[in-house]
């Protein structure tokens, strides 16, 4: 039935953000035509949280958030939000070339992506 998840990131500078995903994060990709890149992402999981508003959030997960941020800043990536602690893990955000924030987190909970 369901065989995958397709995530869409809307961007004011899609070309620059695609280059960032390709060149800085190193995500493999296919070209769907006219430089419309579709990226292979790491394994994924989904959670449903209670909230005042409906919506979605995208977090890239990592095993060691501090080390990941150090590696990214060495590549010239700007940290948008420094590391903070939440009950479920540590989180931070980086800046995409378009100026948008991209959240990262190191989970403290059991993960489902390798089931």
From TrEMBL:
Tell me the Gene3D superfamilies matching this sequence: 2,3-Dihydroxybiphenyl 1,2-Dioxygenase, domain 1 (3.10.180.10)
Q: Name one GO molecular function term.
A: lyase activity
Concerning InterPro entries, the annotation shows: Glyas_Bleomycin-R_OHBP_Dase (IPR029068), Glyas_Fos-R_dOase_dom (IPR004360), VOC_core (IPR037523)
Q: Record's SUPFAM superfamilies? A: Glyoxalase/Bleomycin resistance protein/Dihydroxybiphenyl dioxygenase
The source's superkingdom equals Bacteria
Please give the coiled-coil regions recorded for this protein.
none
Pfam family for this entry, one? Glyoxalase
Q: Which residues form the VOC domain?
A: 3-107
Any idea which UniProt keywords this protein has?
Answer: Lyase
The molecule here is called Putative enzyme related to lactoylglutathione lyase
């Amino acid at each position: 039935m369901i065989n995958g998840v397709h995530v869409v990131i809307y961007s004011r500078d899609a070309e620059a953000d695609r280059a960032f995903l390709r060149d800085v994060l190193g995500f493999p990709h296919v070209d769907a035509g006219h430089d419309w890149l579709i990226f292979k992402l790491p394994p994924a999981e989904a959670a449903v949280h209670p909230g005042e508003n409906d919506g979605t959030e995208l977090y890239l997960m990592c095993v060691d958030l501090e080390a990941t941020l150090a590696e990214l800043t060495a590549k010239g990536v700007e940290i948008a939000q420094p590391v903070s602690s939440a009950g479920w893990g540590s989180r931070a955000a980086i800046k995409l070339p378009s100026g948008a924030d991209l959240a990262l987190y190191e989970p403290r909970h059991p993960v489902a992506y390798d089931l």
